[in-house]
Amino acid sequence: MTGLKMLTGRYFLLNAFTISLLAIPLFFSLKITSSIHNDARMINMAGSLRYRAFEMALDVRRLHDARDLAERQQIRNEFLQRINRFERTLAVVRSSVSYDDLTWLAGKDTVRTFRQVEARWSHGIKPSLLAAAQQNSGQRLHVSVDDFVHHDIDSLVGNLEREAGKKESYFKQLLNFMLVGAILVTFLFYRYVRNRVLQPVQLLNEAALQVTGGNLSHRVIVNDHSELRFLSGTFNSMTDSLSQSFEELKRTNLELISLCDASNKLNTIGSSENIYNNICETAHSLFDLRMAWIGLIQPGSIHVEPIASSGDDTGYLANMKISWGDEKIGRGPAGTAIRTQVPCCMDVDAEEFAPWSVEATKRGMRSFLGLPLLVGNHCLGVLVLCSSEPGYFNDSRIQVCRIFANNAASVCENSQLVENMVFALARSSEVNDGATGAHIRRVGDFSALLAGEMGLDEAFVGTIRIQSTLHDVGKVHSPAALLGKPGRLTDAEYNIIKNHAIYGADIIGRHPWLDMARNIAVFHHERWDGSGYPFGLQQADIPLESRIVALADQYDALRSLRPYKQPLSHHEVCRIILEGDGRTDPTHFDPEVLEAFRRIHHRFGLLYDSYEDASQLEIAESKFVITPGLMTGIPEIDEQHIQIAELLNNLQASSTVWDPDDDNSEVIKIFHEYIEQHFQLEERFMSEYDYPFIQAHVASHQNFVNEFKIMKRRYYKNIFDDYIGEQIKFQLSRWLIDHIRNDDRALADYLKTFSFSDCHAGSFLRSATAV
Q: How confident is the model at residue 765 (pLDDT cuts 50, 70, 90)?
């Protein structure tokens, strides 16, 4: 620091000396400028004295010539006022003469002349004027005033003008001197700086250019001045540091750019399930990881449930036990991050990671970072990043990952809030229309089917599945008597019902997250040919989401039983939509949406039947019963289906205390084992009798196993928190119905062609039911 202080002190003194050289002439130039300005003011005042003296001379003559007494009195009053004004002007000139402190330079004649003017006025002119005003005579006095003006005052004005000219000349000379001095000082200063500073600095500049070009090995050598040697040493140290930090900075910059893009993308994803998957996929690619996964906190539990992952999982999460309590399985990166609400980083060989180290090592994972998903002081869960490099998560990378996790948590929370609000609003439409409950859920599924078939992105599909459930929310304002009227509505009644589209938009509001829901509520009754309501829009003027929901809503309305109509079969509804029946016409629908429906209408039928067949699992005191309509005709299979239905009832009964992570739960254990043995029974039949569709049937079994795992993870995310038991039972039973109606009946029909008898599976059935 000594060299730098010397350099700073030297140039401070040099600058101070230079400034002082320029300050002295600058001071005098300011003084001269002020004096010239004062002279101009005095010249102006002297001219005013001349004018006022002429006025007084004129008044003297008027006073002499006046004959009327009143006229003389008036002239006398004006005369006295002019004398007073002359006195005041003279006082101003006196103060200006006194103010000028450059009289030594060019002002002595002015002072002398002014004193003569002042003396003659005070001792001669003024007393004579006052006497003339009293005696009403002034012919001779008029001559004295004229002489006073032409001699004394004109002399004063002349002196002022001459002296102002002198000062102006001095000022110009001073400016020339200052200009020459400034040029000289600048030249000397430049020579000094060039020799003492610029040349060493030029070396530093050239070195900086080398470093800027990427040559971080370049060094600066300065031998002339100790203070600049200090700077060169600092520069060399800086380049050493830069060479070590450059690659890390470049990587961090790329990560931040990617992080910004990823954050923007997250805000466009529709449903929360899609968001969780996208967070893991984005983190996996963004940070070049082995794997990334998200675990959520279960309400009322210390267990952490993995719900989404991306990367090389290969069963890593399947049997993982994680807690956020202060216990052995809660001291890893996930549990610690949740418990402390700060990021937790550790390597695979850390003592705290022992419960998972073997499985992690098998999969090439070496370091881990747990990031709490925080919204305010509330922790939703944890994002865990797994890398194949030991010590991969340094401080800078942790900060970038933390930013990503915080943004991801906000997106998750916002998504859940939106979904909660959407489903709450959607359920409100059931108040006046009992048929609306299942209808709104089916329309959401139908709309998602169409959107996916049309090739729309995942975000759009997820959003329309959720927000289309609000299409009839405006019916909360529709009279229940009209919604449930068994007969045909009158035109007036129909107009009242049509208002639900506008009411729906008013209820949903203007928040941009619900733009799709608002469009659907308002425009889902518009028709492609312009014959719809409420505005008669046509073709592309109708939002795409509304065109999709229009067909989905029409399909479900035709299939459903309503007070004013009987339900139609899938075949009849497809014929009406694709060919028309006089009331519904294909021209009502977007041709692209209609074509997508034509390709996948069979999936509409299966989906509708899966909802409809839920009624076949008759509820008797909250218990499901397999009805004859769901029997396959193979006793062993049917008996196990009945047992599975009973297990579903037991599962519902325990759902109030159901812990998806607790594999020791007797209900869950029995359900899992029985389902697996049932699947083994069916697969044994298929194998023994060379069933041609065995692969598809086995895949269906595996899909159920995977779906059951997903259900355990989904229903504590507070979307259907108040209906968790009912929702689990409904989802599992709906899958079972669909599986029986399609896969198991097809298998049964095939087995019956071999005169299949009970004895083929009797022993296996007994072993299965003994569980």
A: very low
Using CB atoms within 10 Å of the CB of residue 134, give its burial: 0 to 12 exposed, 13 to 18 middle, 19+ buried: exposed
Burial class (CB in 10 A: 0-12, 13-18, 19+), 374: buried
- Averaged over 84-104, what is the pLDDT? 71
Give CATH superfamily name and number for 267-414: GAF domain (3.30.450.40)
Would you say residue 310 has pLDDT above 70? yes
Q: Where are the alpha helices (DSSP H) in 218-271?
A: 226-266
Query: How big is the CA angle at 361 (ends 358 and 367), to the nearest 5 degrees?
Result: 115
The whole-number pLDDT of residue 180 equals: 80
Q: What is the DSSP letter of 569?
A: -
pLDDT grade for 431, boundaries at 50, 70 and 90 = low
> What is the Cα Rg of the chain in Å?
50
Got the DSSP string for 151-163?
Answer: IIIHHHHHHHHHH
Counting every residue, how long is the chain? 771
CATH architecture of 628-769: Up-down Bundle (1.20)
CATH of domain 429-616: 1.10.3210.10
Instruction: Give the count of beta carbons closer than 10 Å to the beta carbon of residue 468.
Output: 31
Smallest CA-to-CA distance from 370 within 416, 324, 303 is with 324
Residue with tokens 């000379």: 173
With tokens 């999936």, the residue in question is 603
DSSP state of 371: E
User: For residues 684 and 640, what is the distance between their CA atoms, to the nearest angstrom?
Assistant: 15
Whether 699 shows a pLDDT value over 90: the answer reads no
Query: Taking all residues of the chain, what is their mean pLDDT, rounded to a whole number?
Result: 76
Widest CA span in the chain: 162
